[in-house]
Design goal:
With about 325 residues, this protein is an all-alpha fold. It folds into two domains: about 50 residues; about 250 residues, MetI-like (MetI-like fold). Helix content is about 70%, strand content about 5%. It has a two-stranded antiparallel sheet with strand order 1-2. Helix 2 crosses helix 15 and helix 4 crosses helix 9. The protein is flat and about 70 Å long. The termini are far apart. About 25% of the residues are buried.
């Protein structure tokens, strides 16, 4: 009788302990959640709140509703610079997307080749620029692109191509593209390593089957490698999108905070800096409310853009 009475209680106790253990993992998440809430979530939502206020300098105490957003999009004096920076940011992103990432995929494919000797050396060379400080890289390339004594101009003159030399960072038509290409050069190592890791995880049997079937290298890439790389292409695209819409350092180092020449290199990062921090807004003083509005617009664009990229690049059924 004693054993019969104790058995149900013992089972209940064990179940209770298991339930507590099942919930115990939450304690491991709490530190990360607290840090995220304090340093990510709270600043984000507070920035959105501040976008509805204005004030003198860094003191925001006057609620103005959507006036900051109306000025950004409809005030001719302000919206011209904002919309210009917005458009330039898309161009900046497009160059990275179609130059940096395509080169990264090409380099990764070449590094997978069995006939390429010294692959580890090439892998290191490709990745080294990504380890350099962005500001250092920007100032270095600014020296290299100097139209009078820069290394690029000197090289072009030495090989008889002095006719194509330009004031690379002084021509409004090409300055932004040049800076975007410099940034792509620095960060091409990251997508290269990500694509390379994904390619190395593709079963070798698929390539052997394709070779036996008589498939060319292009057919193997297009029908085997590329579909299996779709998830990592999505990740790389999202990282490129978020990184370039938050870009600031390289433009600041190579063209300054004003987006010279004539705002042709101005992107959302430099515009936000002038409006909310440096006080070089058309009104002449720092406007944190307007800066918060710019930051909120960037967040909305990123939120929508990341969602669209996830839908486009997500795996479809049947592709594993």
């Amino acid at each position: 009788m004693v054993q019969k009475n104790l058995s149900p209680m013992t089972d209940q106790t064990v179940l209770g302990i298991r339930k507590k253990q099942d919930l115990f993992w939450i304690l491991y998440l709490l530190p990360g959640l607290i840090i995220y809430a304090l340093f990510m979530a709270y600043p984000l939502f507070n920035s959105m709140r501040l976008s509805f206020f204005t004030g003198s300098g860094y003191v925001l105490n006057d609620f103005i509703g959507f006036d900051n957003y109306k000025k950004l999009f409809f005030n001719e004096r302000i919206s011209s610079q904002f919309l210009g920076a917005f458009g330039n940011t898309w161009i900046f992103f497009a160059v990275h997307m179609f130059v940096q990432n395509i080169l990264g995929l090409l380099f990764a494919t070449l590094l997978m080749s069995k006939f390429l000797k010294g692959r580890d050396i090439f892998r290191t060379i490709i990745f080294i620029p990504a380890t350099l400080a962005i500001v250092v890289t920007g100032f270095l390339w600014k020296l290299l692109l100097n139209p009078q004594w820069g290394a690029l101009t000197t090289f072009l003159k030495a090989i008889g191509l002095s006719s194509i030399t330009k004031v690379w960072l002084g021509d409004p038509q090409i300055a932004l593209i040049v800076i975007a290409l410099v940034s792509s050069w620095q960060w091409v190592g990251l997508p290269t390593m990500m694509f390379l890791a994904a390619l190395q995880n593709i079963p070798e049997e698929l390539f052997e089957s394709a070779e036996i079937s008589g498939a060319t290298n292009w057919q193997t890439f297009w029908y085997i490698k590329l579909p299996l790389l779709k998830p990592i292409i999505g990740v790389v695209s999202i990282l490129t999108f978020t990184g370039n819409f938050n870009a600031f350092d390289v433009v600041f180092a190579m063209a300054g905070p004003n987006g010279s020449p004539n705002f042709s290199t101005d992107i959302l990062g430099t515009y936000f800096y002038r409006v909310g921090i440096a006080g070089k807004h058309p009104v002449g003083i720092p406007d944190m409310g307007m800066g918060a509005a710019v930051a909120t617009v960037v967040f909305v664009v990123l939120f929508i853009g990341v969602g669209v990229l996830r839908v486009i690049t997500q795996e479809k059924k049947g592709i594993k």
